[in-house]
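Standup notes
- DV: blocked on the single-chain target, sequence here:
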Amino acid sequence: MKIFYFFGDSVTLGVNDACAGGWVSRLAGMAAEQGLPVPPDTFYNLGARKHSSRQILERWEREYACRALEGASAHFVFCCGTVDMAAPNGFPVVPIGESASNVREMLLKAREYGTCVLLSPAPVQNDEHNQRLEALSTAYGSICSAIDVPFIDLFHPLMERGYVDELEDGVHPGPRGNTMIAELLCETLKAWFAEKNS
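- DV (later): unblocked, structure below
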């Protein structure tokens, strides 16, 4: 059996896609259509509103531990940065260097338990916020390259597909945007879904 753990903020949680559960639930449905046995394979959406990389770093291991099952392989997906790069007072909530350090610590620990991947944050409608998100995505990619952990760039493909035009509140995707994220991940994570259960 495989268990997939998705740690992130409100974009991961799917706050504007209440009926369908956001991109995590949509991804689970797409994986099932490709033959992944869901259940018993399980998808946990562990997104939390307003959580920056600081909060996710503090909580992720504890939340994983209370859901882990003996004999099940663990697959971790981390997606943060949107909150980090918000600047309500003129400065990012979490500086880029600290955010990169936080995800590095998470990834190094997570791969002791199973396989892991880091997603870039998705774009938003605010240009200045997007500039910071793009810079953070570059930093995240560099961290992943240095420690040999897969990095999936959502930022640029979503920008190219018109994702930001679907953001009613400027940040959170609705059904169409969540489907776009799920489609991108269904393709890039297909090796995980095809992996034989032990």
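- Follow-up: The domain at 2-194 is CATH 3.40.50.1110 (Rossmann fold).
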